[in-house]
Each structure stands twice: as C-alpha cells, then as structure tokens.
C-alpha cells in the first residue's frame, strides 16, 4: 500500500509539473503579448478628446480565403478625409510581432492579433492618425486607415495548417483590403502614403512597390516604415535569435512566394525577410523612422532570456542606464550595424531618414513621440515635421542622431514595472500549481506514514 501510494503521488507530481510548465508556457506567450502592447500604441495614453474610430470587417474576404489565423474576416478602421485632404489617403499597417510555430499561432487565435473576434470595436486615432492639425499638421485631414494585423507574418503568408485550423493568409488579407479601399475611393487618390509600425513597418517595406503599382503614375505615392528595420543581428550569446524566428515564420507560413524576386534570386528566403536586404532595391520613395537602439530588438533579438540564462544582462535590458561600459559598447555596435545596413538606401535622393539615438519602438502612432512640444527631435525638428518635409518635398531629410547619450529629447522606455509584474505572475503560477497539487494529493492519501515519507524523504 505504501509503495503504491508513493508511486501514485510521484506520478501525479510529474503530471503536475508538466501541467505547470504548460501553464508557464502560456504565461510566457501572454508576457510577450503584453510586451508588444506596451511597446506599441497601447503604451500611449490617448487624450480625453482623441478620435474613436469603429472597426469595419471586410465583406467578402472570407470567400476569397483572406482570413485571420482563426478563419475570421480581417478588418480596418477608416476616418474620412475632409477639405484639402479629401483625395489623399494614409494607410497604417498595424504591428504586433510574428508567430513562428504551431503553438504560438494557435495562441494568437485567442487574441486580437489572430482573430477579429477579439479586436476592439473602436480604437483611438492618435499621432499620424490624428484628425487635429495641432497634433498631426500634414496628414490630419486625409482619409486615414488602420489595417488590423491578424496573420502573424507581416501580411505576407500564404498557406494553412488543417490539423490545427490555422490559416496563413497575410498576402490575401493585404490584397482584399487594398481592393476594398480602392472601391471606397482610394482609386481616386491624388497622393497616398503607406505606413506601418513594427511588424507593420516590415510589411510597409514588403508591400511598398505593390502599393505604388495600385495607382496611376500621376498619383504621388510614398512609404513610411516605423520601427521596421529589424536586423540580422547576433545576440549576447553569439546566437541568431531573430534569424531563427524569421526562418520558421517564412517556412511555416509560406512567405517565400511573396518575397521580392530581386532578393530571392540572390539570397535565401529568410534573408529576404530582413529589411536590410530589401530597402536598397525598393523603387518607391521610402522613409525609415527608427530608434537606433530599438527597444523590441534589444529585448527579443539581442538579449532574449534564452541567451542570458544567468540574468547578467537583465538590469541593462530593462533600463539602459544600468548598462556597464562593455554592455553599452555591444549596443553601440548594434547601432553601427543599423547605420551600415541603410548606407546604400540613404544615398538615394528620393528616400528619407530619421534615426534617433533612443531606446524606443514605434514613434509615429504615439502622440508624445509624433508631435508634441517635448517630442523627440533631431536638429530641432520633430518626427512629424521631418516626415512631412520629406513627403511634400519641402526639403531633403537625412537625419541621423549622434550616438547615445547625446540626445536629451528621447522618450526612452524603461521596463522595470512591466517585467516585474510579469515575472511575479509567472513564478506565482508555478508555485501555486505545485502547492495546490500536493495539498490535494496529501489529503486523499490515507496512510500518514506515506505522507511523511514523501515530505521528508525518510
């Protein structure tokens, strides 16, 4: 009896540990979701009078197979232009990372990043999407569109996984959305700007020339990529975290067929998902807005938890003011890699740059970083003014900041509060799962000696 009881208890403990690890895995995915939200527009507190714009689902998208990961129709938010902007269109592609395996893609189906069932019914339009001249001087009265992101491959996938009911239809979502917007008046645009933040910034690079080809040659068309310059960088342990992820995204979601052949004819598909191998060959005028020390790349590409098992980089990762000289040099090397990656791109007269030396991510949708009295500046020119000057050809814009710590206008992100909450929730979940399991098992065992033997190892 004692032996059987101990065996049952041991087996249940193993199952419990497995369950706790499974739950811990879900917590990890939730933590990554929270990080994305914090880094992107959700981190900004909208003003009391900010514009709320309703969600529109794309009718007929499902019949075309243009669906989110879970098979629901994709959607967008549109605020109509007025006055001089009535025939001008701004398309903002939403960001939100990628899913590179079945587990992460299945998880996304339970969030707004994989299903329109969970998308907000209305969202704030701030920054480059604001309808107020004092907040968005050059684009406030344009037709402004936010295209929601629910495919997990920067609007570039084509495929499906029937066993898990996953649909990788990013390219079809892009096409269906463009068709819908053209029918709603964009075909008559006199000028158009395709923009995007984070994974949406990568999407604006991937689809820039496609966007241009939608319009007649008389239409002024340009593209803006905000926080989209993801680099094929080496992490602190010498690995290639982002390359590994991108390789899995490209393979799982069938991205290869939708990558520019100007790249795939010379390089492998994974390399052609990296902007550094694409931007020099884009025909359409493009503006790169990026923090030299991009906060998402610092967290998830340069210093992922897997590359820092002992936590020696943790304080530096959460708050750059805690980096020692060796760690800061590593981050300076990353900045240099970014500047080298855009060297050829920057030499084209039609292209624009705003590379500030900040620890930030996505600066066009947040009002405080887009256009405020204290917003980031290079040469005393704010992001919104720089983008406007470039789009309307008022002046050439090739703004590159000096290296950290020279810029006092940055709105740097610090993660102590957010990450400590996440860490506590993870450790608490693991601890309570095991304690509850043991309590339940010990109550059901009738042999007190068995209980004592398990607890004290006697």
Write out key terms for the chains shown.
single chain; 458 residues; alpha/beta; Rossmann fold; 2 domains; ten-stranded mixed beta sheet; two-stranded antiparallel sheet; 15 helices; 14 strands; disordered N terminus; disordered C terminus; cell wall biogenesis/degradation; AB_hydrolase_fold; hydrolase; secreted
Q: How would you describe the overall organization of this protein?
A:
The chain has 458 residues and is an alpha/beta fold. The protein folds into two domains: 1-39 and 419-458; 45-414, Rossmann fold (3-Layer(aba) Sandwich), CATH 3.40.50. The protein contains 15 helices and 14 strands. The strands form three sheets. It has a ten-stranded mixed β-sheet. The chain has a two-stranded antiparallel sheet with strand order 6-7. A two-stranded antiparallel sheet has the order 12-13. Residues 1-21 and 417-458 have low confidence and may be disordered.
Describe the SSE topology.
Layout: H1 2-39, E1 51-57, E2 75-79, E3 88-93, H2 102-108, E4 122-125, E5 143-147, E6 159-161, E7 166-168, H3 170-183, E8 191-197, H4 199-206, H5 208-212, E9 220-226, H6 241-252, H7 261-264, E10 286-291, H8 295-302, H9 314-318, H10 325-341, H11 343-346, E11 352-356, H12 367-370, E12 377-378, E13 381-382, H13 383-391, E14 398-400, H14 416-444, H15 448-456
Parallel strand pairs: 3-5, 3-8, 8-9, 9-10, 10-11, 11-14
Antiparallel strand pairs: 1-2, 1-4, 2-5, 6-7, 12-13
